[in-house]
Amino acid sequence: MPEVDDVSVDINPNDLKIEVFRSGGHGGQSVNTTDSAVRITHIPTGISVSMQDEKSQHKNKDKALKILKARLYEAEIEAQNAQNKEVRKTQVGSGDRSERIRTYNYPQNRLTDHRIGLTLYSLEEIMLGGLLDEIINPLIAHAQSQAMGTTE
Questions:
Q1: DSSP 10-25
Q2: Domain ranges of the chain
């Protein structure tokens, strides 16, 4: 687990549920007689950490808080990574034919603009710079109708 500074993760003390209990395990002096084990639960996320390594309740509480902060930090990083992944996924297409804007078919001498459903059978002339108005004017009309449709 990554070590986290106290500054990087702010935890509201009201969001913590701290429980103390007796340590379990093999016998020994003061193992089963003092409440030195600590369980800290972060209420909003439900993340819980138990610590019973030390004899002192305060040391166990400090260790448990460090582990809880590390887990909260890791959960926050994972959430950010998942959000970034979703954003990237929406920006990058799948490359399917359905996502194409325009098709240039040289064997059939055909240009098709899939956004507006325009098909012209004079690809050579278009590629030489002629008939561009026949492509541009319908695209402008389509863009204007889209703009008017979204503002209403």
A1: ---GGGEEEEEE---S
A2: 13-91, 97-151
Please state the separation of Cα 150 from the chain's center in Å: 28
The SS3 of residue 110 is strand
CATH fold of 13-91 reads: Double Stranded RNA Binding Domain (3.30.160)
Burial zone of 68 (CB within 10 Å; 0-12 exposed, 13-18 middle, 19+ buried): buried
Q: Three-class SS of residue 79?
A: helix
Query: Which one-letter DSSP state was computed for residue 36?
Result: -
pLDDT digits (tens, 9 = 90+) for 30-81: 555 677 889 999 999 999 999 988 888 899 999 999 999 889 988 988 999 9
**Buried/exposed code over 19-42 (b: 16+ C-beta within 10 A; e: otherwise):** eeeebeeeeeeebeeeebbbbbbb
Q: Tell me, what's the pLDDT at 150?
A: 61
**Up-side HSE of residue 53: CA atoms within 13 Å toward CB?**
10
Instruction: Please tell me the pTM assigned to this model.
Output: 0.56
